[in-house]
Structure prediction request, 229 residues.
Amino acid sequence: MSMQRTSRRNRNRRTGTTKLSKRGRAGGTRRRSLGTAGNGHPARRNAASAHAEIAAAKRRADPRYTVAVKSFEVATRYFLKEQYSKAKEVFEKVIAEAPVEIAERARVHLRLCEQKIGEAAAAPKGSADNYNLGIAALNARQLDRAVEYLRKADRSSPNREEIRYALAAAFALQGNPDAALEHLKAAVQLRPGNRYQARLDEDFQLLAEDRRFQELTQPEKPTVNRSPY
Prediction:
């Protein structure tokens, strides 16, 4: 009988141990499940999305953001109309003043504008375009560039008095009197009024003491009609 009780106690002890082990495993499993739910990715994604929306709302509420968006739209319209110089100017302003998000987008478009402007500058131009570019360079005192454009204009449309006169002015400012007087002489022959204009033009100031310039710009002597009687 004593042996039976001992055997029963042993069975109970083993059974109890088994039950505790099952509970322990079950409890551990539950804890791991809870832990996984606590670190769940969907919750983190939702929180990040909410923070991003709040940040975006704050940016949109910033007056600088509104102004930058409008300026960006203006620049984009210029770009679509192929007015690349105007678009470039506005994009540069956006980059300097806008929040980072818009400034980065403007920087991409600015590079496109510069590319388009470069392509346009490299493209062949007619006489009128080269003349206008030459005059702009002359006024800016970019004399080498002025001569380059004006020579192209002269090759396209030779014997145009305004082109020869502009070349004369450019060479005079460069300190090249021989080339200046050659083109000025042609300009005067094509339009005698250039004689008077050159005499008053400050671009020819360096030639004022040159005897050839003085003779070329002297007023024409009036023609006297003598009567045969």
Observations:
- The CA atoms of residues 172 and 204 lie 6 Å apart.
